[in-house]
Amino acid sequence: MELESLKRTLALAEEAARDGRLDVSSKLLAGVDIDSLCGLAAAATFFARGNVRCLLGDDAAALGDYEAAFSLYAAAGDSGSGEHAKCLLASAHALAGLGRGDDAIQRCLEALAVFDEAGLFDEATSGRVALAHLYVTAGKSADALALFSSASGPAGPLAELALADALRVTGLFLEAANHYRFALSRELPDDTRARALAGLASAVEGGADGLPGAGQSLALWLEAGEYVERTLAAADYQEESMGAYRERLPDAFAFAARSCLSVSECGLDPLELSERARSARLRELWGHRGAAKEPVPTEDIRTSLRPDELLVSVVMTPSGAFGGDVLVLSIDRQGFGGRELVHGALPRISRALGVVTGSVRDAVGRGYPLPYKAQDELRAALRTCGSILLDPVRDRLAHVRRVTFVPHGCLHGLPFASLENPDTGEPLVVSHDVGVLPQASLRPLLAARRTAAGGRTLIADSGAFGSASRAVESAGEFASAVDASGMSTHDVLEALQGAREALLFLHADFDELDPASSALLVGAGGTERLTGLLIAESDLALELCLALACESGALATSKGEAILGLSPALLVVARQVVVSLWPLDERVAVAFLRLFLEEWDASEDAVAATSAVQRIFLDVTSARHPGALGFDASSPFNWSGFTALS
Are 363 and 508 contained in the same domain? Predict the structure, then answer.
């Protein structure tokens, strides 16, 4: 494996592990072969693999990788470098996980000596936080305090903040709160103040004796959120340091939405707070057209809903001492507003999501059904996700026909139509039309958007042009059809000018490391990349965009930033969008295209049409389509990945 490919694989594995997709991370790690490397390249690769193994909870294997890295750094004469010291610090975490606290403390001290000598203040501060945590865990709080009072380099509020973080994660909330307040009494940049406020809110929420309760916690989260917004508004979004900052900082508005449930008569709407959490991530995504610049009032969202529709907004607080909760908020046209906090559900839903995405991608990619055991695991995972997300609204499900989910974080990868309905034990789509939106505030904006008055345009890859054209013709509605193999990205956008409906039957490239660069592939051999940014910056005004391309609906995070991929960009130019979360078999895509257009022509409702086709796939013996599909359409691998956004 080439060095760059190896680095890419390890970065993907680390991202998957941080996102809770442990099965994906483990599979990627299994393919890593370091034997062909030597010197500093091998040391850096052992270090990276150790980090992934630490995230996966395999501290013993991680420690082995770190120690292999030490040997290679020493052999290369690089044992006094910052990278070697970072490896020492990482190994301290693994030693602590193995119960070797004294050894972990010694490793931290060795790393700190290197950081201080090299003048690496940020790294030294991180090392002191880790060492303070170990001291406090060992009952040596006085040593932790002395560690910061004698710190070299700039002291004061940053050192106080570092110590407060260490005390908080160890559970000493009262002491942590005192140090956060001391830091906040000084002049701080907006980003540092936001971090301090978020830390103080976490300490207050810990409920330690002598601290106020949820009321102050809510106020602190809100204030932290204001500073987060101010910081991000002033920052260059391409700046690496801001990416790292966004990764570290908890989502203050998500915590605030959770906290306000505990504060009676606070006058705040958790749905609006959850929209602020999403808005901070989405609103700069594609400029002014991409998302609401400010969250839309809940009343406007309510009146934009259909009479038979329930909107379910899911907010997750990041994992950690006070994270890992899932907040399920719901609202319907009649004004019903449900809110329920599912404590500690995030790890369960992350594991279940890993099973779902891993098994479906594996089955589709390899072209054969999963073994029965794997299918049972998949059903159990969908049952887990259904119980977490649908149990809180099960009383309302019987009163509505449509459910629109507004996911948060990694839940954007969940095939919501296949969630098990807790009342029936069947996929939710059997009884309901199921749609998705990345942000509830988009609903009234999409409803008000004007679209072009043109016709239907099919742009298809040359290999599937014939079958896609025939599928469109069989629907009975005229469409102009264009072979994408000879087109540039400009040609594609030009061909769609004035169109009302775009049918894109193409290959796509989803890059999990750099999701913003994900693209539809056109031109000879797919050499031209129609990226989401190019699409979003166009002046298309579509009613429908049907993107039947592998993983056209796949999303990921980039540098802690927003959810990124093709589907948010498609929503910029179309009121209704249909994408696929998974890789697509051509037979499945052609059948879906034909059946979808039949349903769409009857209703012009992408959510209803997509759900109707999924029900047909589930019941291929129906009188309407007896044996018409020619493949095992009822398998969730063939129908659950289609997702309608509207």
Answer: no
Count, residues in the chain: 646
Say which range, 281-295, 314-328, 336-350, 426-440, has the weakest mean pLDDT: 281-295
DSSP letters along 350-367, please? HHHHHHHHHHHHHHHHHT
Cross-strand pairs, 340? 328
pTM of the predicted model, to two decimals?
Answer: 0.74
Domain CATH number, residue 546: 3.40.50
- Whether pLDDT at 471 is above 60: yes
Better-scored residue on pLDDT, 256 or 149 = 256
Per-residue H/E/C for 472-515: HHHCCCCCEEEEHHHCCHHHHHHHHCCCCEEEEECEEECCCCCH
Cβ atoms of 299 and 289 within 8 Å: the answer is no
User: Where are the alpha helices (H) located in 56-155, listed in sequence order?
Assistant: 59-75, 82-97, 101-118, 121-137, 141-149
Residue 161 makes CB contacts below 8 A (sequence gap 6+) with 179, 180, 183, 192, 195, 196, 199
Backbone angles phi, psi at 59, to 5 degrees: -65, -35
What is the band of 306 on the pLDDT scale with cuts at 50, 70, 90? very high
Q: What is the pLDDT of residue 224?
A: 65
The answer to whether 447 touches 457, Cβ cutoff 8 Å, is no
Same-domain pairing of 415 and 497: no
Closest among 547, 529, 546, 530 to 538, alpha carbons compared:
530
Which CATH number covers residue 384? 3.30.420
d(CA 229, CA 218): 17
Residues 418 and 456 in one domain: no
Most confident of 189-193, 202-206, 486-490: 486-490
Structural domain tally of the chain? 2
Report DSSP state, residue 370.
P
Q: How far apart are CA 501 and CA 546, in angstroms?
A: 8
Q: What's the pLDDT tens digit per position in 633-645?
A: 677 778 888 999 9
Candidates 543, 552, 331; CA nearest to 450 is 543
Domain holding 458, by residue range, is 449-645
Q: Which long-range contacts (CB under 8 A, 24 or more apart) does 474-477 make?
A: 474/594, 475/594, 475/597, 475/598, 475/601, 476/601, 477/597, 477/601
pLDDT digits (tens, 9 = 90+) for 113-131: 888 887 777 777 778 778 8
Q: Give the list of residues 6+ apart from residue 342 with CB closer than 8 angstroms, or none.
A: 325, 326, 327, 328, 388, 392
Mean pLDDT of 501-512: 87
